[in-house]
Amino acid sequence: MIFTSIYSDYKSQGLHPVLIKVIDFLKETDFSDIGPGEYELEGRDIFYQVHEIKTEELEKRSPESHKEYIDCQFVVKGEEKIGITRLKDSYSVKEYFENRDLIFYKSVEDEGYVHAVEGCVSVFFPEDVHKPQIAFKEPADEKKVVVKIRTSLLSNQE
């Protein structure tokens, strides 16, 4: 997992060029007039989803991971708490949506949390089980962008 901000000097953090390109896109794009939906940047290799959601209590959220894509989650407006832990073979799958590259788990262990506010970028790799959209103090409206990056793009150097 990588946790940074569009306001930080992320270009000097040793990030892969594809991640820098995605964070540049997030920093330079005005999402105020972009409604909920899915949009392509580079076909199905890099695409993004805009969500206008309400955060929820911890108990209502399920831990998740992805096999084919890296999640780059960006808080446009609002705030959330995000749970994070490493993937273990012992975790029981609750639901698997292959067409959405989405795996939900029944429960996880050793979960830590980050507080993501406007401008924060969280990057989750396939080995990162994460639980987004947790209410920080109480459920609240949030706008976020989730950029999906095909994992194979990070194994290819530019």
From TrEMBL:
One Pfam short name: DUF386
UniProt xrefs under InterPro entries: NanQ/TabA/YiaL, NanQ/TabA/YiaL_sf
Name of the protein in question: YhcH/YjgK/YiaL family protein
Transmembrane portions of the chain: none
Native organism: Anaerococcus degeneri
PANTHER family: EVOLVED BETA-GALACTOSIDASE SUBUNIT BETA (PTHR34986), PROTEIN YIAL (PTHR34986:SF1)
